[in-house]
Amino acid sequence: MSRRLSREIAIQSLYQQDVHPEADLQMIRELEKKVQGEDLDFYRVLVQGVKEYHPLIDPILERYVKEGWKLSRLSAVDRAVLRVATLELLYQPETPSGAVLNEAVELSKAFSGMETSRFINGILGKLAKDLDQLREEIQQ
Q1: Is-contact 49 87, C-beta < 8 A?
Q2: d(CA 61, CA 70)
Q3: Largest CA distance in the chain
Q4: Can you say whether the dihedral through the CA atoms of 72, 76, 79, 84 is positive or negative?
Q5: pLDDT beyond 80 at 1
Q6: Tell me: the pLDDT tens digits for 76-116?
Q7: Could you tell me which of 78, 79, 88 has the C-alpha nearest to residue 43?
Q8: What's phi and psi for 32, nearest 5 deg?
Q9: How far is residue 64's CA from residue 135's CA, in Å, rounded to a whole number?
Q10: HEC letters along 66-100
Q11: Measuring CA to CA, which residue among 89, 82, 87, 84 is closest to residue 123?
């Protein structure tokens, strides 16, 4: 088990919740069964964190999406990748930013493809440069 698997399952769970908010939680519970121990704890931190901080995360991401675009214009899986990575960047300072960006890019390659991974990298790279300022903003 690994944090990568926790991130992968968290993205899948958040995708399911985004696409099928009315759906039974059974599918999400089935996904959660793939993660165990400390990785399960990390998975839950990611999923619950994105749910809890969603009202803060999305407006921050909107700043870094291409001018004239809205986050809603992105695919649900891309939104899930961006939200998980942004949560980690903002609220998990013990995880190196480079590791978060690398994982997000690799997961976006797996779920969406090479072109999207460059887009994800660009957004998160810009966000990471402003990380200290963004952390100050959310603490106020």
Answers
A1: yes
A2: 9
A3: 43
A4: positive
A5: no
A6: 999 999 999 999 999 999 999 999 999 999 999 999 988 89
A7: 88
A8: -60, -30
A9: 15
A10: CCCCCHHHCCHHHHHHHHHHHHHHHHCCCCCHHHH
A11: 82
Q: State the alpha helices, DSSP H only, in the chain.
A: 3-19, 26-32, 37-64, 76-91, 97-111, 114-129, 131-139
Element (H, E) at 1: none
| The total number of residues written for the chain in this structure | 140
Nearest-CA neighbor of 101 among 64, 54, 56, 48? 64
Cβ proximity of 54 and 12 under 8 Å = no
Q: Let me know: does 123 contact 61? Beta carbons within 8 Å.
A: yes
How many angstroms separate the CA atoms of 62 and 66, rounded? 8
Q: Could you tell me the sign of the dihedral formed by the alpha carbons of 54, 58, 59, 61, in that order?
A: positive
pTM of the complete model beyond 0.85 = yes
What's the rounded Cα separation, in Å, for the pair 111 and 12?
9
- In angstroms, the Cα distances linking 129 to 54, 72, 133, 134 are 21, 24, 9, 10
